[in-house]
Design a protein that fits this description.
By secondary structure, this protein is of the alpha+beta class. Helix content is 26%, strand content 35%.
Length: 99
């Protein structure tokens, strides 16, 4: 796949209490990804962008919640998350350099 399409697959890292625990205990990182992306595309994108070795990718699809705005019933967008398991000794650092 062309590298310019790989840049559009990863949308954002998921920063939460659960993602921090998973990262510390299982050497995994969680990303929000494009809904049409598959596991091999996600793996290629992470390896290209962060220069790390990826062991495995697990994908989680979640439905958008229904929300009401007065009489109008709407829905939030569906989303997709990817749990990226990194090889031993590999690490993705989202913070900048040390101060």
């Amino acid at each position: 796949m062309k590298s310019n399409k790989l840049y559009n697959i990863l949308l954002s890292p998921v920063i939460s209490e659960k993602s921090t625990l998973v990262g510390e205990n299982h050497n995994q990182t969680i990303f929000k990804v494009h809904r049409d992306a598959n596991k091999s595309q996600i793996k290629s994108a992470v390896e290209l962008l962060f220069k790390v070795k990826v062991d495995s990718v697990q994908v989680l699809n979640s439905k958008g919640k229904k929300k009401r705005y007065g009489k109008t019933v709407g829905r939030r967008d569906h989303s997709k998350k990817a749990y990226i398991c990194l090889a031993d000794g590999e690490e993705i650092n989202f913070g900048g350099g040390s101060a």
